[in-house]
Amino acid sequence: MTTAEEQWAGAPTGRRSDLGTGRAARRRAAATRAQAGGAAGRGRNRHRRLSGWALLAARLVFIGALVGLWQLTVVLHLFPRTVTSSPSAVAVYLRHALVGSTLWVNLGATLEAAAIAWVLASVVGVVVGIGLGLLPAVERVVAPVLDAANSLPRIALAPVFVIAFGLTITAKLALAFSVVVFMLITSARAGMQAIDVDIVRLARSLGANRRQLFFKVMLPVAVPSIFGGLRLGVIYSILGVLTSELIGAKNGIGQLLQEYASLFQIEAVYGLLIVLAIVASSINSIMSWLERRILRWQAPTT
Amino acid sequence: MSNPLRRAGQPRTHGADGTRARQAAAPSDGSVVRISDMDVEFVAHGTVDEVHTAVRGFSLDIRSGELIVIVGRSGCGKTTILNVLAGLARSSAGEVLVHGLAPDRALEHMAYMFARDALLPWRTARGNIEFALELRRPGMTRSQRRARASDYLDALGIGSAAKLYPWQLSQGMRQRVALARTWAIDPDLLLMDEPFAALDAQTRAETQELFLDVWSREGDTARKTVIFVTHDLTEAVLLADRIVVMNAGAKVDEIAVDLPRPRDPEQVLEDQRFRDIHRRLSRVLQEGGPALGDRARPGRVPTV
């Protein structure tokens, strides 16, 4: 095997800066180390901000302050009793709901529908988006329709789907799918367009065939944008399912919300919203963590 | 991967790692690149019949191991010539041969370097070199690619950066990774499109020196043939065996640089021959008239 050293060994150059030996090489190596160290050093500086336990404590204090403020508005009777509830009443509801089965069954129904819709919309959206990225001629034809569909408030389709599919999971899936799929198409298309012309020239000059160009260059380029779409898609999938359930469903958190609101059980409504907020932000955190792991190569944006 | 069109008498060995043989005879005329009376035309973007001439009547023969520098203003057709040789653009008239073959059939002989490093941001420095090897040396195993990539990073003094991603590297280090990538695939024709133009003056000087060093290290017989495009006249004289001056798509001058190698940048700048050539280049480029931008038109080409 021809190593670099063998290849360059024995070629008389008479240069003082022979690679691997000499002052110039040492200077270069030192500069390299300094630059590499500098990059790592900048990384450390970033972590000197509030982090770890201190950050967690500060966040808990902030949440505590919000809850305290809320309790204060109740104590001082700032809002009518019919639309507000006290944190303590919500806590009482949650204590009962968390040991009962109603909350869990309905939460399960909502998340199941959201997950199915998200997976379907992601697969279809990414495939279509990448396909359009590869076929610019087709993209130019369908782009206006896609853009129009994407800017349409598709939530407004909820009553239509409920009428069409009845009080079934299909109605929920249809709405959530229609909300999420266009987001994924858009982010996959945008990802494919983010390609650096020089990298394509390089790959072609290295003899890359179409398959190699796609898997080794185009797809990795599109990944960050696609991941952004997937992350947003989770939240919007839950939103779509919930909206459908609010309009009409046999089960689900949306249906439960509707029921409690009509019975003026405001503390239960707030309790459910808190549960949803915790679930959604947990999913978001998991997606962020995944994104950081998969996209470790990206420069930090902050 | 033996190739019958390799130059003769090259001392390198090659093994099971997929490094191809450099054996067999050179083309009968001894030139690596032969361009005769080439025109390159392209249809302006968004139009059907508006034909622009990027290069016209261009001829150049390049011997093995020669370092040719093409200078000229932006839009004079320099990059177009490299693109034709890289098979990324087509000539519309004349003949272009690389090792006696059409450019797109001689890709395996060739490597291309750009002003920007063109590193894949999702791969480490070493991963970027492995990328080039994956495409050029399908016969190599993963561990062979890794070992070779590490060797070349070490040889260019950036072994410690192997596991860093491009955003963690300075511009100068990135261009060194690009150099390591280029050398790792072991081309014998090197197309360089203003490769150091994006670097600051200090880093550029260091990188030029490093480039000359690794290039001349390979010795007279195994030395790579280089076509180097720049608009920096000092860089042109420092590097070149021969300088081709272009304006508005045509060759307007050709100057042999007979400064001895190895060239020390500081000494070369003091040399009277350097100054003479530099002055001549400046004069030719000024007389060439205003650059026509990207839309070089036929009929505006000055005669030599």
Folded structure, characterized:
The complex is a heterodimer of chains A (302) and B (304). Chain A contains 12 helices and no strands. Mean pLDDT of chain A is 83; it is low at 1-44. With 302 residues, chain A is mainly alpha-helical. The radius of gyration of chain A is 28 Å and the shape is globular. Chain A starts with a helix and ends in an 8-residue tail after the last helix. By secondary structure, chain B is an alpha/beta fold. In chain B, helix 3 packs across helix 4, helix 4 (171-184) runs parallel beside helix 5 and helix 7 crosses helix 9 (272-287). At the A-B interface, helix 1, helix 2, helix 9 and helix 10 of A face strand 5, helix 2, helix 3, helix 4 and helix 5 of B.
Instruction: Provide the helix percentage of chain A.
Output: over 70%
- CATH fold type of the largest domain in chain A: MetI-like fold
Mean pLDDT of chain A: 83
The termini of chain A sit apart by: 44 Å
Shape type of chain B: globular
Class computed from helices, strands and strand pairing of chain A: mainly alpha
Q: What general form of chain A does the structure show?
A: globular
Summed up, the helix count of chain A is 12
How many domain modules of chain A? 2
- Major sheet description of chain B: 6 strands, mixed
Looking across the biggest beta sheet of chain B, what order are the strands in?
A: 5-6-7-3-8-9
The beta-strand count of chain A equals: 0
Strand content of chain B: 15-25%
Major interchain interface with per-chain residue totals: A-B, 45 and 64 residues
Low-confidence stretches of chain B: 1-28, 289-304
Output the helix-strand order of chain B. EEEHEEHHHEHHEHEEHH
Quaternary structure classification:
heterodimer
CATH level 1 class label of the largest domain in chain A:
Mainly Alpha
Binned strand content of chain A: under 5%
